[in-house]
Design a protein that fits this description.
Order of helices and strands of chain B: EEEEEEEEEE
Largest sheet of chain B: 6 strands, mixed
Number of strands of chain B: 10
Strand order of the largest sheet of chain B: 2-10-9-4-5-6
Number of strands of chain A: 11
Structural class of chain A: mainly beta
Largest interface: A-B, 23 and 24 residues
Helix content of chain A: under 10%
Largest sheet of chain A: 7 strands, mixed
Distance between the termini of chain A: 39 Å
Oligomer: heterodimer
Radius of gyration of chain B: 13 Å
Helix content of chain B: under 10%
Low-confidence stretches of chain B: none
Chain lengths: 123, 107
Protein backbone atom coordinates (compact mmCIF):
# COMPACT_ATOMS: atom_id res chain seq x y z
CA UNK A 1 0.00 0.00 0.00
CA UNK A 2 1.37 3.38 -1.00
CA UNK A 3 1.57 5.59 2.07
CA UNK A 4 3.69 7.95 4.13
CA UNK A 5 4.11 6.97 7.76
CA UNK A 6 5.30 9.65 10.16
CA UNK A 7 6.91 9.45 13.58
CA UNK A 8 4.98 9.92 16.78
CA UNK A 9 4.14 12.90 18.94
CA UNK A 10 6.92 14.86 20.61
CA UNK A 11 7.05 17.26 23.54
CA UNK A 12 9.97 19.69 23.54
CA UNK A 13 11.13 22.61 25.64
CA UNK A 14 11.68 26.06 24.14
CA UNK A 15 15.08 26.30 22.49
CA UNK A 16 15.30 22.58 21.76
CA UNK A 17 15.25 20.84 18.38
CA UNK A 18 12.90 18.25 16.97
CA UNK A 19 13.29 15.81 14.09
CA UNK A 20 10.21 14.35 12.44
CA UNK A 21 10.51 11.34 10.15
CA UNK A 22 8.37 10.39 7.17
CA UNK A 23 8.81 6.86 5.80
CA UNK A 24 7.59 6.09 2.31
CA UNK A 25 5.97 2.71 1.77
CA UNK A 26 5.03 1.22 -1.57
CA UNK A 27 7.12 3.56 -3.68
CA UNK A 28 10.68 4.88 -3.93
CA UNK A 29 10.95 8.12 -1.96
CA UNK A 30 13.40 9.84 -4.30
CA UNK A 31 11.17 9.38 -7.35
CA UNK A 32 9.14 12.29 -5.98
CA UNK A 33 9.78 15.44 -4.01
CA UNK A 34 8.60 15.83 -0.43
CA UNK A 35 7.07 18.96 1.05
CA UNK A 36 6.51 19.69 4.71
CA UNK A 37 3.38 21.50 5.87
CA UNK A 38 2.40 22.43 9.40
CA UNK A 39 -0.88 23.28 11.09
CA UNK A 40 -1.05 25.07 14.41
CA UNK A 41 -4.00 24.17 16.66
CA UNK A 42 -7.25 25.40 15.11
CA UNK A 43 -5.37 27.12 12.30
CA UNK A 44 -4.82 26.66 8.58
CA UNK A 45 -2.08 24.96 6.57
CA UNK A 46 1.37 26.50 6.30
CA UNK A 47 3.92 25.31 3.75
CA UNK A 48 7.41 25.06 5.23
CA UNK A 49 9.62 23.81 2.44
CA UNK A 50 10.47 21.02 0.06
CA UNK A 51 13.25 18.66 -0.92
CA UNK A 52 13.43 17.82 -4.60
CA UNK A 53 13.39 14.41 -6.21
CA UNK A 54 16.31 15.18 -8.48
CA UNK A 55 19.33 15.95 -6.37
CA UNK A 56 18.03 16.60 -2.89
CA UNK A 57 18.05 20.36 -3.27
CA UNK A 58 15.87 22.14 -0.75
CA UNK A 59 13.81 25.30 -0.61
CA UNK A 60 12.22 26.82 2.47
CA UNK A 61 9.73 29.49 3.27
CA UNK A 62 11.59 32.62 4.36
CA UNK A 63 10.28 32.46 7.93
CA UNK A 64 12.02 29.09 8.50
CA UNK A 65 15.36 30.01 6.96
CA UNK A 66 18.20 29.04 9.26
CA UNK A 67 15.97 26.91 11.53
CA UNK A 68 14.87 24.04 9.34
CA UNK A 69 16.79 21.24 7.65
CA UNK A 70 15.19 18.80 5.21
CA UNK A 71 16.94 15.56 4.34
CA UNK A 72 16.28 12.12 2.92
CA UNK A 73 17.83 8.72 3.66
CA UNK A 74 17.60 6.55 0.57
CA UNK A 75 18.68 3.44 2.45
CA UNK A 76 15.54 3.56 4.60
CA UNK A 77 13.25 5.40 2.14
CA UNK A 78 12.69 8.06 4.80
CA UNK A 79 12.51 11.85 4.76
CA UNK A 80 13.33 14.01 7.75
CA UNK A 81 12.45 17.50 8.91
CA UNK A 82 14.51 19.05 11.69
CA UNK A 83 13.37 22.30 13.30
CA UNK A 84 15.70 24.07 15.72
CA UNK A 85 15.37 26.81 18.33
CA UNK A 86 11.79 25.80 19.02
CA UNK A 87 9.32 28.36 20.32
CA UNK A 88 5.84 27.96 21.75
CA UNK A 89 4.33 29.07 18.45
CA UNK A 90 5.97 26.09 16.73
CA UNK A 91 3.41 23.89 18.46
CA UNK A 92 1.62 22.26 15.55
CA UNK A 93 0.89 19.10 13.62
CA UNK A 94 3.61 18.61 11.04
CA UNK A 95 2.75 16.81 7.79
CA UNK A 96 4.93 15.45 5.03
CA UNK A 97 3.37 15.33 1.58
CA UNK A 98 4.49 13.72 -1.65
CA UNK A 99 4.96 16.19 -4.49
CA UNK A 100 3.80 14.90 -7.84
CA UNK A 101 5.35 16.97 -10.63
CA UNK A 102 3.94 16.74 -14.14
CA UNK A 103 6.62 16.99 -16.82
CA UNK A 104 3.95 17.91 -19.39
CA UNK A 105 1.94 20.55 -17.58
CA UNK A 106 4.69 21.60 -15.15
CA UNK A 107 2.19 21.55 -12.34
CA UNK A 108 2.85 20.35 -8.81
CA UNK A 109 0.33 18.68 -6.55
CA UNK A 110 0.54 17.07 -3.13
CA UNK A 111 -1.10 13.74 -3.88
CA UNK A 112 -0.17 11.73 -0.79
CA UNK A 113 0.05 12.90 2.82
CA UNK A 114 1.41 11.43 6.01
CA UNK A 115 -0.85 11.12 9.01
CA UNK A 116 0.77 14.04 10.80
CA UNK A 117 3.08 14.37 13.82
CA UNK A 118 2.11 16.57 16.75
CA UNK A 119 4.97 18.62 18.15
CA UNK A 120 4.23 20.43 21.40
CA UNK A 121 6.64 23.09 22.64
CA UNK A 122 6.17 23.85 26.30
CA UNK A 123 8.31 24.67 29.29
CA UNK B 1 4.60 35.87 -1.56
CA UNK B 2 1.33 35.14 -3.37
CA UNK B 3 -1.68 35.58 -1.10
CA UNK B 4 -4.78 33.41 -1.50
CA UNK B 5 -8.09 34.62 -0.09
CA UNK B 6 -10.95 32.17 0.26
CA UNK B 7 -14.59 33.05 0.70
CA UNK B 8 -16.61 32.39 2.62
CA UNK B 9 -14.59 31.44 5.71
CA UNK B 10 -17.43 29.16 6.78
CA UNK B 11 -20.78 28.05 5.51
CA UNK B 12 -23.62 25.77 6.44
CA UNK B 13 -25.60 23.82 3.87
CA UNK B 14 -28.07 20.95 3.68
CA UNK B 15 -27.62 17.53 2.16
CA UNK B 16 -28.38 17.78 -1.55
CA UNK B 17 -27.42 21.46 -1.82
CA UNK B 18 -24.91 22.89 -4.26
CA UNK B 19 -22.01 24.68 -2.58
CA UNK B 20 -19.48 27.08 -4.10
CA UNK B 21 -16.19 28.20 -2.55
CA UNK B 22 -14.09 30.94 -4.10
CA UNK B 23 -10.31 31.43 -4.00
CA UNK B 24 -8.68 34.63 -5.22
CA UNK B 25 -4.95 35.06 -5.79
CA UNK B 26 -3.04 38.31 -5.26
CA UNK B 27 -1.43 37.89 -8.70
CA UNK B 28 -1.90 35.60 -11.65
CA UNK B 29 -1.13 31.97 -10.97
CA UNK B 30 -2.43 30.75 -14.35
CA UNK B 31 -3.90 27.30 -13.52
CA UNK B 32 -1.42 26.30 -10.82
CA UNK B 33 -4.14 25.91 -8.22
CA UNK B 34 -5.04 22.85 -6.16
CA UNK B 35 -7.94 22.14 -3.80
CA UNK B 36 -7.71 19.96 -0.70
CA UNK B 37 -10.29 18.60 1.71
CA UNK B 38 -9.41 18.16 5.37
CA UNK B 39 -11.88 16.18 7.45
CA UNK B 40 -11.77 16.79 11.22
CA UNK B 41 -8.69 15.21 12.79
CA UNK B 42 -7.32 13.95 9.49
CA UNK B 43 -4.62 14.87 7.01
CA UNK B 44 -5.57 16.91 3.94
CA UNK B 45 -6.64 15.05 0.80
CA UNK B 46 -6.15 16.25 -2.77
CA UNK B 47 -9.44 16.88 -4.59
CA UNK B 48 -8.64 19.00 -7.64
CA UNK B 49 -5.33 19.84 -9.31
CA UNK B 50 -4.43 22.26 -12.10
CA UNK B 51 -7.56 24.25 -11.22
CA UNK B 52 -10.05 21.85 -12.81
CA UNK B 53 -8.69 18.29 -12.98
CA UNK B 54 -10.38 15.86 -10.65
CA UNK B 55 -7.91 13.72 -8.73
CA UNK B 56 -8.31 9.98 -9.27
CA UNK B 57 -10.85 8.45 -6.91
CA UNK B 58 -12.56 11.72 -5.99
CA UNK B 59 -16.34 11.74 -6.51
CA UNK B 60 -17.52 13.58 -9.60
CA UNK B 61 -19.78 15.86 -7.52
CA UNK B 62 -16.60 17.87 -6.89
CA UNK B 63 -15.47 20.21 -9.64
CA UNK B 64 -13.09 23.13 -10.04
CA UNK B 65 -12.87 26.03 -12.44
CA UNK B 66 -11.02 29.27 -13.04
CA UNK B 67 -7.66 30.59 -14.12
CA UNK B 68 -5.52 33.65 -13.56
CA UNK B 69 -6.58 35.04 -10.18
CA UNK B 70 -10.11 33.70 -9.62
CA UNK B 71 -10.99 30.10 -8.90
CA UNK B 72 -14.02 28.16 -7.74
CA UNK B 73 -14.60 24.81 -6.05
CA UNK B 74 -18.13 23.48 -6.49
CA UNK B 75 -19.74 20.62 -4.62
CA UNK B 76 -22.90 19.36 -6.26
CA UNK B 77 -25.45 17.35 -4.29
CA UNK B 78 -23.79 17.82 -0.92
CA UNK B 79 -23.38 14.68 1.18
CA UNK B 80 -23.05 14.38 4.95
CA UNK B 81 -19.49 13.08 4.57
CA UNK B 82 -18.46 16.34 2.89
CA UNK B 83 -18.22 17.91 6.35
CA UNK B 84 -14.67 19.30 6.26
CA UNK B 85 -12.47 22.32 5.78
CA UNK B 86 -11.46 23.08 2.21
CA UNK B 87 -8.20 24.75 1.23
CA UNK B 88 -6.89 26.14 -2.02
CA UNK B 89 -3.14 26.12 -2.70
CA UNK B 90 -1.02 27.78 -5.35
CA UNK B 91 2.04 26.04 -6.75
CA UNK B 92 2.95 28.70 -9.31
CA UNK B 93 5.78 30.04 -7.19
CA UNK B 94 7.54 29.32 -3.93
CA UNK B 95 6.42 29.57 -1.18
CA UNK B 96 3.47 27.34 -2.03
CA UNK B 97 0.84 29.23 -0.11
CA UNK B 98 -2.57 28.03 1.03
CA UNK B 99 -5.81 29.91 1.46
CA UNK B 100 -7.05 30.35 5.01
CA UNK B 101 -9.64 27.59 4.59
CA UNK B 102 -13.42 27.33 4.30
CA UNK B 103 -15.19 25.32 6.98
CA UNK B 104 -18.23 23.51 5.63
CA UNK B 105 -20.93 22.45 8.08
CA UNK B 106 -23.94 20.31 7.32
CA UNK B 107 -27.30 21.58 8.54
Amino acid sequence: QVQLVQSGAEVKKPGASVRVSCKAAGYTLTNYGISWVRQAPGQGLEWMGWITRYNGNTNHAQKFQGRVTLTTDTSTNTAYMELRSLRSDDTAVYYCAREYFSDTSMEVRFDLWGQGSLVTVSS
Amino acid sequence: DIQLTQSPSSLSASVGDRVTITCRASQTIYSFLNWYQQEPGKAPKLLIHAASTLQSGVPSRFSGSGSGTAFTLTLNSLQAEDLATYYCQQTYSSPYTFGQGTKLEIK
